[in-house]
Amino acid sequence: MIRLVRARAAHWPTTVPVFAVVLLVFAWGRDLPGPVVALLACFLAGAVLAAVHHAEVVAHRVGEPFGSLVLAVAVTIIEVALIVTLMADAGDKNSSLARDTVFAAVMITCNGIVGLSLLVGSLKRKVAVFNAEGTGAAFATVATLAGLSLALPTFTTSAQGPEFSPAQLIFAAFAAVVLYGLFVMTQTWRHRDYFLPMTTQGKVIDVEEHADPPSKRTALISLCLLAVSLVAVVGLAKGVSPTIESGVAAAGLPASVVGVVIALLVLLPESIAAVRAARRDRVQTSLNLALGSAMASIGLTIPAVAVASVWMEGPLLLGLGASHMVLLALTVAVGTLTIVPGRATPLQGGVHLALLAAYMVLAVSP
């Protein structure tokens, strides 16, 4: 009996996306009662976990650093789809949703995932070791993208409010795509060795040693199921989004909390993957996941919402407020000091987690 239960449980990444799509077909375009919304939310969470599971299978097949790239892009596609879906439904009411979600993703990845990975890795082996060249290049790209896309709109004068003019938005979207493309080329081709995991002794690991890679057939099946999972996530999110927004409003919380909820939803499974890698003395893989997700979040979301803004009504607010600008500046400064040595102790992990805690407090009580 126990073996039967375990065998059936092992198939959940296959069955959950399929059931989620079936449920989506029956629930699409209908006014849903509370119990049905709760069921949708459960399958939404399951579909997110299944998507990341299949992304990890594909990632294991192609190896590092391609694996981190696959997982980061898959998670970001979920995020972009959720943002565009909610913005299209709500119009002016969610004009700042892209900014809130992207900034939440930057804070969660650059402080939450990075801090937790460094803390776990250094507590297990006294010091967390990573390649400062590759990690520094990734962090510099994230800082540049965040500055151009989130900080600069606050100070421009061509449009009223913290938003870009059409020409400025086109430039920001183009710059985001180009920088992200250059980073992907650097990570996967010209300087791939900068992003390979390292042991505490400084040994570069070019091949994962803990398990054999899946077969080509298994990887292709996971790739197909990954696409099914992403469709389920986008559709189910559209069904539960009114409940999320009304719940945030009923609790008296700022509208920006919706962006935090979206970022937490799509990044939680990736956070688990990063912690697992840190426990296996693969801190570089954890940092690849964190910074790759932050970079993809900006580099793919900003161009996507720029294109979507052509047919969506209302302004597209991208500029950060004063308190968030301070948090972004602290994150860049602290992150730089953390990465330069190529080694970190629990103190650095704790400092990053403190910045994430400050962001969460200000999100609820600005």
Automatic annotation (TrEMBL):
It is a multi-pass membrane protein. Its main location: membrane. Residues 37-189, 222-363 form the Sodium/calcium exchanger membrane region domain. InterPro entries: Alkaline_pH_Ca-Antiporter (IPR052946), NaCa_Exmemb (IPR004837). This is Ionic transporter y4hA. The keyword Cell cycle does not apply. The lineage of its organism: Bacteria, Bacillati, Actinomycetota, Actinomycetes, Kitasatosporales. It comes from Streptomyces agglomeratus. Signal peptide: none annotated. GO terms for cellular component: plasma membrane.
